Amino acid sequence: MDMLLTGIKGFDELTGGIPKGTRTIIIGPSGSGKTVFSMQFLWTGLKNSERVSYNIFDRPFPSLMEYFKSFNWKIEEYIEKGFFIPIQSFTHHEEYKRDPRIKYFELTNLEEMKRIDLELSEKKVTRLICGDINQVIFSLIPIEHMNQIESWTSNWIWFEKVTVMDVISLGFLDEIGKKNFDLNKKGAQNIIHLRVAEGKREMKIEKMEGVQHPLDWIPFVINERGIEIHL
Fold it and tell me: Fewer CB under 10 Å: which end of the chain, C or N?
């Protein structure tokens, strides 16, 4: 199985990386390290001369760029050269100027999502992050629409061999939300939980397709280099 390295010390040694052409769910509470995990995954791809993309849901894209900078991961030059394609599903208010380098779209617009995905395929994007998605959003999406999203995404990932990572924050789920989230999990080949317990961060690999991995909680740290697991 072809693997993509995450650049996370310890994780790659345990798993060999993330299987290429699969979807991974990274889920946990705020502050558990989900966004850093995804950023490090993209940064590793950029350093390997891959084209990558990030679709941000929870803030304006310039805020994410500053987050990258805090780890000295300077993505501006990669955006300018077309190796990092920024997408913003977070609501953009017309009072603020749009950045022509960023693709803006509404999550409810399935046809626009398809168009952007196919454009990423044409540009040979290998890694795509979608997040941070608050779990509550699954309660706001009609089940029929969620089925369409899952069907399209599963086909697109498989045929185009794009490795996708959904970053999801824990939140309240009603009956519809639980059904949609279960559908989302069913479509993912890999699920990784992050948490903060007794003052330390830990991760647990619930499942990873075709990859040997431990099933217990693994301590990790976040430092100036990103996430590290000390085996």
Answer: C
